[in-house]
Amino acid sequence: MRNKIYLALVHYPVYNKRKETVCTSVTNFDIHDISRSCRTYDIKEYDIVVPVEAQKQLTQRIIGYWQGGTGGEYNKDRESAFKHTKVKNSLEETIADIEKTEGQKPVIITTSAHIYPNSISYSGLSEKIFTDDKPYLFLFGTGWGLIQEVMDMSDYILEPIRGNTKYNHLSVRSAVSIILDRVLGEN
Amino acid sequence: MRNKIYLALVHYPVYNKRKETVCTSVTNFDIHDISRSCRTYDIKEYDIVVPVEAQKQLTQRIIGYWQGGTGGEYNKDRESAFKHTKVKNSLEETIADIEKTEGQKPVIITTSAHIYPNSISYSGLSEKIFTDDKPYLFLFGTGWGLIQEVMDMSDYILEPIRGNTKYNHLSVRSAVSIILDRVLGEN
């Protein structure tokens, strides 16, 4: 359903350039830009998934500044964008919390440059979300992308974004924006 | 025409929060994210418009690092993204250079939260670009947006991006991505 859509940005477990499983650092622009995109497309909750204690604290401090602190006072639009942004310890925690809130496990959506048996088009997913009553969770990887075990958990895998070239290296911030617009936008 | 599309990110003249005309600082993520989005949607040139000498030098140094330096060696995809990213002194310089290259002035496109007599839909603009042989220039403002005199120069003004909410405060990086996808994407 349109009002049970969640999005998580995963910092662990993801691949690095050499395809080793690593934990990446949180990027300030990922907190801001993706919170604002999620607010625009009415995402119920934006989870920043990172298990490292120092990273969690730093991220929570940034979010807190805009949620209730000086930042929120200075810029009300930003305060509104950060209202549903949360820090989570793990993907398992994100999924368990959604199940607790919604009473059922979320349908997991990822994206890939490859075609899988469970690949789905943007319009196909859009139709499904608008008619289904299940919660949906969009997963985005940082670094060199989500590890294979997470990809294997996906119920549906979105086609890669193409823009009339073969270049397929958008920032995660751009990819989130375009995917939310394609699936949920008024266009 | 599809192969004569330019994009400029304007740091001067733009409004600040109090609607004064100011020059904003260049943001590193605007250089990276928008270069990558422009490469994906086959934009002929991405101009970063900033008149301040120190800002121009810093921006040129960052671009140079990825265009030919250590960065380009380390990450070939990023090198490719930065190939057509340039620093320009003013909007007038951007327009004059396009006219020199293409033999005619570009059609200027901006976006606004308001509806104007020359407002255009995404599909309307998309159709126009694919059938027209003129060069097109997309202008994006930083800070609190392009000043009125620049808006008045626009041939067409795109409708605001809506995502089923009234919230309309995307980052410029997200707005660029979504607009390029709506007008030029394979969706």
Helix-strand sequence of chain A? EEEHEHHHEHEEHEHEH
CATH class of chain A: Alpha Beta
Helix content range of chain A = 40-55%
Give the CA-CA distance, first to last residue of chain A: 19 Å
- Supply Rg of chain A: 16 Å
- Beta percentage of chain A is 15-25%
The largest chain-to-chain contact, stated as pair and per-chain residue counts, equals: A-B, 37 and 38 residues
Largest sheet geometry of chain A: 7 strands, parallel
- CATH topology of chain A, by name, is Alpha/beta knot
Supply the number of helical segments of chain A.
8
Low-pLDDT stretches of chain A are: none
Average predicted local confidence, pLDDT of chain A? 94
The oligomeric state is homodimer
Judged by helices, strands and strand pairing, the structural class of chain A is alpha/beta
Number of strands of chain A: 9
CATH superfamily of chain A: SPOUT methyltransferase, trefoil knot domain
CATH architecture descriptor name of chain A = 3-Layer(aba) Sandwich
How many structurally independent domains of chain A? 1
Q: Order of strands across the widest beta sheet of chain A?
A: 5-4-1-8-6-9-7
Shape of chain A: globular
